[in-house]
Amino acid sequence: MKGQYNTKNKELLLQYLKETAGRHVTVQDICDHFKSHGNAIGTTTVYRQLERFVDEGIVNKYLLDGSSAAYFEYVDHDHCGEEPCFHCKCEKCGKLIHLHCEEMEAIQNHIMAHHGFKLDSVKTVFYGICEDCG
Where are the domains of the chain? Predict the structure, then answer.
């Protein structure tokens, strides 16, 4: 593995991800943000650095289906850390919403206890319409 080094783009990207903690962003969202602020970062650079952050455990990567772009999220351990974290995805606007609640844990426990099936909470997505689009 090549040596790790800090670059301006790496630091800018990490700062942006920290500022958007709790939100899911795509590579396109990131590139658009930097371009609009006069600091364009190449798509390949963003992909490469995000994959490093995923490998380091400071960013989660979500692949929800075969047709959507990957979503990335900074992990500040107040969101989707060790505890189960299910998601809702709006079929109109694409918004991804975290579900952290006892009811979801109860459903997960029920499915395991009564059906012998363990849900992968990171990959479990409920599709529907968010309140903004509804």
Answer: 1-81, 83-134
Phi and psi at residue 34, in whole multiples of 5°?
Answer: -70, -35
Q: Is 75 helix (H, G, I), strand (E, B) or coil?
A: coil
Provide the whole-model pTM.
0.64
Other C-beta atoms lying within 10 Å of the C-beta of residue 91: 11
Are the C-beta atoms of residues 75 and 81 closer than 8 Å to each other? yes
State how far the alpha carbon of 50 is from the alpha carbons of 35, 107, 118, in Å: 17, 32, 29
Please, are residues 22 and 59 in contact by the beta-carbon 8 Å criterion?
no
Give the whole-angstrom CA distance, residue 129 versus residue 134: 6
Low-confidence winner among 1-15, 18-32, 76-90, 94-108 (lowest mean pLDDT): 76-90
More confident of the two residues 33 and 67: 33
Q: Which CATH superfamily is domain 83-134 in?
A: Ferric-uptake regulator, C-terminal dimerisarion domain (3.30.1490.190)
